[in-house]
Amino acid sequence: MEILVFVFKLAVLLLPLFLFGFFGFWKWRKHYGGGTILGYFSRYVIKKRDTDDEFPVYALKVGLFLAWIMFSAPILF
After folding, report:
1. CA distance 51 to 53
2. How far is residue 42's CA from residue 44's CA, in Å, rounded to a whole number?
3. Helices H, strands E: what count in the chain?
4. Which of 9, 60, 62, 68 could form an SS bridge with 76, CB 3.0 to 4.6 Å?
5. Whole-model pTM over 0.85
């Protein structure tokens, strides 16, 4: 039971990454007609070193993720 609680807390902690990945996949599929989510992650997470986001969008995503971790980690753990 403790492992299940830990996995849930970890999922909540990493929620922004999941959301950014989901919406990035959705945008990629709509724009490029891409196939599977594995193809998206292979292209944009593993193979490609830079990002398609403009700097302000990228900085906002990083800032939101860091703020989420700073505020939720002490509460969850």
Report:
1. 5
2. 6
3. 4, 0
4. 9
5. no
3-state DSSP call for residue 49?
coil
The values of phi and psi at residue 53, to 5°, are: -70, 145
pLDDT digits (tens, 9 = 90+) for 25-57: 787 777 777 677 777 777 766 666 556 667 787
Give the integer Cα–Cα distance in Å for 30 and 13: 28
Torsion of CA 69, 71, 75, 77, to 10 degrees: 30
With a cut of 60, say whether residue 18 has pLDDT above it.
yes
Hey, what are 63's tokens?
Answer: 């800032």
Kindly report, residue by residue over 53-76, the tens digit of the pLDDT. 677 877 888 888 888 888 888 887
DSSP symbol at 14: T
Task: Name the residue ranges covered by the structural domains of the chain.
Answer: 15-76
